[in-house]
């Protein structure tokens, strides 16, 4: 019927076929309105239901306590790198970071433009192949918050457990692993994620934030960059990315139908085990990049004996219907992104291709 690729793209990434089909069905005429979601007012009651529905499904699935706000913003996770220090880093305080790789680096660079930063742990000496051990983390007394990158999409590392920060606000960039496993949201002051990896299409960024942190932003910040603007207006201060929010809602419904976030974790563990086992049992033909204890459930990074062989792997995989297996240009190698929506069959097909490629080139 439909010719679907084995899609291992890092982001934007695979969406469930069921979600795309439902969107297709409703594309021209949503709920009998005689128009597409894209054509209707964001102040209409139909869109209000879409907006509130996506919010409450996210609350339900992720177990978000009632004293947290859920915001749908624009500008990507990258805009949050600046908005966080603008809103939450006051003079005399320092933004603390765990430096885990490419995305942490971007967050740190933005915060430096706004105020003081402290790197409390880093795995740079190991080329970011692991999450630093939590016992290494010492927070400065004047820390405004601790920022972590829950999953480093490019290096393929992920926190197995989150740091305890006591009274210090913990903030996590979960752009590439939100909803891949259950999380105790109450440990965090804020969690944010661009939607295009694990939650839907590009265009909307999810911010989950404790109410007290966004009650009053500093008056000097422009309106659109203040959390209080969006918190006070239910993310409808200006025109929201309505179609993206609608698709996030469909994706959340899909997660719920699959059994929720705990079921997603099991599903992801089964999928990634297939591929990590294929790497580990290849006798060194495939070499995993991340340390065993820091391996990501979402981005599997690995290498072959030479760059030439890696190029050949990518080329041949593309001929067989695989997409997105080339590693990020900054680190090279290979990467399979196995987000929630990536089907088990794609991972099984990849493992078969890997075995066949090794047989021919090993
Ligand atoms: C993709 C990604 C980002 C950037 O997201 P944009 O929405 O493109 O700004 C930030 N952090 C992590 C961990 C990512 O994977």
From TrEMBL:
Pfam families: Aminotran_5. Gene3D superfamilies: Aspartate Aminotransferase, domain 1, Type I PLP-dependent aspartate aminotransferase-like (Major domain). Its cofactor is pyridoxal 5'-phosphate. GO terms for biological process: L-serine biosynthetic process. One of its GO terms (molecular function) is pyridoxal phosphate binding. GO terms for cellular component: cytoplasm. Signal peptide: none annotated. Pyridoxal 5'-phosphate binds at residues 77-78, 103, 153, 173, 196, 238-239. InterPro entries: Aminotrans_V_dom, Aminotrans_V_PyrdxlP_BS, Pser_aminoTfrase, PyrdxlP-dep_Trfase, PyrdxlP-dep_Trfase_major, PyrdxlP-dep_Trfase_small. NCBIfam families: PRK05355.1, serC_1. Belongs to the class-V pyridoxal-phosphate-dependent aminotransferase family. SerC subfamily. This is Phosphoserine aminotransferase. The gene is serC.
């Amino acid at each position: 019927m439909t010719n679907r690729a084995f899609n291992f793209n890092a982001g934007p990434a695979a969406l469930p076929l069921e979600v795309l089909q439902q969107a297709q069905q409703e594309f021209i005429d949503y709920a009998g309105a005689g128009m597409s979601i894209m054509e209707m007012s964001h102040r209409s009651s139909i869109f209000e239901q879409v907006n509130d529905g996506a919010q409450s499904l996210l609350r339900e699935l992720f177990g978000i306590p009632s004293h947290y706000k859920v915001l749908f913003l624009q500008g990507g996770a990258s805009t949050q790198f600046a908005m966080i220090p603008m809103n939450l880093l006051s003079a005399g305080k320092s933004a603390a970071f765990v430096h885990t790789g490419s995305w942490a680096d971007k967050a740190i660079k933005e915060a430096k433009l706004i105020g003081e930063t402290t790197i409390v742990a880093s795995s740079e000496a190991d080329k970011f192949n692991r999450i630093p051990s939590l016992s290494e983390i010492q927070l400065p007394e004047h820390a405004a918050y601790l920022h972590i990158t829950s999953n480093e999409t490019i290096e393929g590392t992920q926190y197995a457990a989150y740091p305890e920060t006591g009274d210090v606000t913990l903030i996590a960039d979960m752009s590439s692993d939100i909803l891949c496993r259950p999380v105790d949201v109450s440990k965090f002051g804020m969690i944010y994620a661009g939607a295009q990896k694990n939650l839907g299409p590009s265009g909307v960024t999810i911010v989950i934030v404790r109410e007290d942190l966004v009650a009053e932003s500093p008056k000097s910040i422009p309106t659109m960059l203040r959390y209080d603007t969006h918190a006070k207006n239910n993310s409808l201060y200006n025109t929201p990315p309505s179609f993206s929010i609608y698709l996030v809602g469909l994706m959340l419904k899909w997660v719920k139908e699959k059994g929720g976030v705990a079921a997603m974790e099991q599903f992801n563990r089964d999928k990634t085990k297939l591929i990590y086992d294929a790497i580990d049992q290849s006798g060194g033909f495939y070499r995993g990049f991340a340390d065993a204890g820091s391996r990501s459930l979402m981005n599997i990074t690995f290498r072959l004996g030479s760059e030439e062989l890696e190029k050949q792997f990518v080329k041949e995989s593309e001929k067989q219907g695989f997409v997105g297996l080339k590693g990020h240009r900054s680190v090279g190698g290979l990467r399979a992104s196995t987000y929630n929506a990536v089907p088990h069959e794609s991972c099984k097909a990849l493992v078969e291709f890997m075995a066949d490629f090794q047989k021919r080139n090993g």
